[in-house]
Write a structure and sequence with these properties.
The structure is a single chain. By secondary structure, the chain is an alpha+beta fold. The chain has one domain: Nuclear Transport Factor 2, Chain: A, CATH 3.10.450.50. Helices cover about 25% and strands about 45% of the residues. The chain contains 3 helices and 6 strands. It has a 6-stranded mixed sheet, with helices on one face. The chain is globular, with a radius of gyration of 13 Å.
Length: about 120
Amino acid sequence: MSDPQPEIPVQRQLEAYNAKDLAAFIACYHNNIAIYRMPATTPSLVGRDALAAFYQSERFTIATLRAEVLNRMVAGSKVIDHERVHGLADHPSEVVVVYEVQDGLILNAWFYPAS
């Protein structure tokens, strides 16, 4: 059975990301979270601890970091966001992220860069 509103934890993690609130961000993810950076077939990060360490040292230290959702679709347990990310390069970049939600937490996320 899929979550009735899988977009809720996805929206919460976006808000925590933009606030650089590591505890609130990590709380949106399943203990066994797997992050995929496509086209890789193996995860680049696995588990909440690895996710927390990466975002603490590689993302939330960037003062101008923020993401905005350009479009969101929900299909069953999947939430598909087209995002524009600011702060990682001189110009904003776009990415499509597919989040899989289970029991109110993000279990998997697949990142597809636009370029």
